[in-house]
Amino acid sequence: MNHNEMLLLKLGEVVLKGLNRRSFEDKLVSNVRRRLKSLGSFQVYVRQSTIYVEPQKEECDMAAALAAARQVFGVVSVVRAIPCEKTVEAITAAAQAYLADEFAAARTFKVESRRADKSFALNSIQISQEVGGNLADAFPHVKVDVHHPDLTVHVEIREKHAYVHGPAISGAGGLPVGTGGHAVSLLSGGLDSPVSSWMMARRGVQLEMVHFVSPPYTSQQAQDKVVELARLLTAYCGAMLVHIVPFTEIQEEIRRRCPEEYFTLMMRRFMMRISQAVAKKAGAHALVTGESLGQVASQTMLALGVTEDVVSLPVLRPLIGMDKVEIIRTAREIGTYETSILPYEDCCTVFTPRHPAIRPRLEDVRAAEAALDVDALVARALEGETWVRVKP
Is 307 domain-assigned? Predict the structure, then answer.
């Protein structure tokens, strides 16, 4: 590691935010600081749509900091860069030393320059020509190719220094967590709900999770699996609470008193009521589910209407138009796939009706539900609620 190497994090959508932009940037800087805290001492500040991350001590883990910064929502790309004086000679020397390995491996190169400091004497095209000419002399085996180079040398002229870096690595994009409000996400052990949670966090939403357990029908491993899914998500979402709510009594009551074809729908109605109660206590303003239209019988349009009938909070369903292939691809990308496919039964799969109602009528479901003491069942479930705090 070069002792004065640093990271430049490029901002995405945040730069479009007009008058609120400052608060988005401040939130993003504090999220980056929090994420890097355990990896060493870094100075983090924002200038001209870029967050600068400067290691303050030799022992800072730059590779880990790069990986962590890529997972912070609001950061669109990350580069490892080196600062130098704002002269063509200093820039050439920095590129020659810093990118020596890249030059050794390349056959063609070009220089791309940006001049954020407009008082600098040369414009960006002139900077690229001068530095490119010098580097072509320094590395005679590497030819200039402005269209399809093996290596692009990036030069940025900014307030205090010039910066030299190689290719940028993509970041997580989206908006900084904490700028999009607070929601409660229903987290099962399946593939969908971790992906839907990640997608809402990527819109800046701060999440808490609710998970329903039905001992003895569901095992401790099933619960551990869900806590692990939440922990995997903290890399993107930050620390969060997982509310664990006992669901056995409700499921047994439904099985005892209600028509089998409505089991899943009634279960979901109870889950929504309980999640809304958790959300209101937490000061959250929406619920998030992993539902995808038509994926299963309880996710047809009519079924979604029956489920949503019992809550007044908005229900956010980011996967609503996605198919299983896209959901699986995203789960692999964000690292939840392997945990999601562990074979422990959750409470959704225990009491599955053989012939679920595909076109349920709301009045029929309400009438069937009248056999239950809904408020008492919800209250008892909430009394049994425990929670786990997960951290990155």
Answer: yes
Beta strand extents in 166-271 (DSSP E only)? 169-170, 182-186, 206-213, 240-246
Residue 287 marked as a ligand binder? no
299 annotated binding-site participant: yes
> Would you give the end-to-end CA distance of the chain in angstroms?
25
Q: What's the structural domain count of the chain?
A: 2
144-177 tens-digit pLDDT: 999 999 999 999 999 889 999 999 999 999 999 9
- Whether pTM exceeds 0.90: yes
The answer to whether the annotation marks 268 as part of a ligand binding site is: yes
CA distance 342 to 229: 11
Q: What span, in angstroms and rounded, lies between the C-alpha atoms of 238 and 271?
A: 25
d(CA 197, CA 116): 37
CATH number at residue 361: 3.40.50.620
Residue 186 counted as an annotated binding residue: yes
* 290 labeled part of a ligand binding site: yes
What digits encode the pLDDT tens for the residues 167-211? 999 999 999 999 999 999 999 999 999 999 999 999 999 999 999
291 shares its domain with 247: yes
Q: Are residues 269 and 141 in the same domain?
A: no
Q: Residue 235 is part of which domain span? A: 182-390
How buried is 49 (Cβ within 10 angstroms: 0-12 exposed, 13-18 middle, 19+ buried)? middle
Token pair for 6: 């640093």
> Rounded to the nearest 5 degrees, what angle is found at the Cα of 213, between the Cα atoms of 211 and 215?
170
* 275 shares its domain with 386: yes
